[in-house]
Amino acid sequence: MASRTYGACVLCQKAAVVKVMCRGMSAAAHPQSQVDFLKGEVHRKHPGVTNLKTLRLPEELQTAARSIIHRAQVTQLTDRAHRLTNLLWSRKRAVEDFTLRQKAVSLEKQLWEKAMETRGDIDEQALEDRVRKKVFSELRRTTYHWTPMKYDEEFGVVYMAARLAGGYAAVRRAINEIKKRDPSFAPQSLLDFGSGLGTVAWASHSCWGDTLKELVCVDSSGPMNILAERLLKGDDERAEPHIKQVYFRQFLPVSPKVQFDLVAAAFTLSELPNAKEREEAVFTLWRKTSSYLVLVENGTKEGHQMLMEARDTLLKKQEKTVHDPRPASVFAPCPHKLMCPKLTVEPTMPCNFQQMYQPLPLPGHHDRQTEKFSYLILTRTEPAEAETKGVDWARLIAPVQCRTRHVHCRLCCPDGQLQHLVVTARKQSRDVYRCARSSNWGDQLPIIQKVDDDVQSDSER
Hints:
By secondary structure, this protein is α/β, with parallel strands linked by helices. Helix content is about 40%, strand content about 15%. The strands form two sheets. Strands 1, 2, 3, 4, 5, 6, 7 and 8 form an eight-stranded mixed β-sheet that branches. Strands 9, 10, 11, 12, 13 and 14 form a six-stranded antiparallel β-sheet that branches.
């Protein structure tokens, strides 16, 4: 019996030695796993992690919002807030005139061909009038009717109840990408186009409150500017604003030479009536950008496609007059400058991300909610070489699925392809495997292995 026990112990020791040797061989087989892409951080805090825990509004902002909502005493506030949220989520771009004309011509041609087959002795003028009426009727029935959002004080309070916390969460998560990946960035000036309730100013102040000296909020709605100012003062006209040097304007600064370190437009492009105005707005904002331009929209097909329009505008088109020759480069979320691969896959799916947050404590609001959004950050400065030296960083575009000894990751890669990668400690290295297990939707992942049998494109799947 003792000999059997001794033999078992010897076998266990041998197995342990073999396991250690295998680990050493694995590390030798993946010399890049020993590179300092961790930068001294533990795996769960590796440099690619930009996700935030459940966000909560700053205490001063939440207290002010509750005070304003309570004093406004809006009837059926909860129901109206839910309806507005659904309306904004389902909102689409206005149909372009050119598209509408094409659709009308095609429809008229079909109706004429059908009428000519069965018309008999019908008067041609009467037939033409009938076809025209049918075309107009069909266009009215099938065309999305876009109308601008108009805010008075009461509707602004409804918007506050519906979107203040979610909008803040999306912006705060987007700019956290800059905060995490460019720690030396210390902006002194901010321009927020379509500022609404001032969520961009609050989110930026939470990141760079020590350095920001000038915050310009531009919104064409006077009532929204008044509400934003009340929020800054804690709903007390005689109080000092919680954030100093915030200036409200209804129009953008005229001079093209005036630039801001950080320029943002959150949920604003969707409020512009056509592609031409969106393009002009994007060029104007880029002219005023000294370092970073941040664009945020709803995480829908419409929101994503508007951001891709803006991306193409700044990467592929040239302004007539160039005031700052430094070119635009994509900082986030795209790991490449190629066409978004999500636009080439059928059915088309938006590239979006999510952030957990605590809503305003109002009736009908749950303890925790999820904001789904799309964003785009462009910069005039090239990404630091040290950040990606020796490692390609891909973006996780779906939740990570952790399984026993392997992790399923769906990635947008630096080569412009969507990939499904099964990460294991044996094939990708222990460091990459542990980083993958600690990552989540929206984070970046250091991909060392090239595409092989363990990687499938989404189209192949």
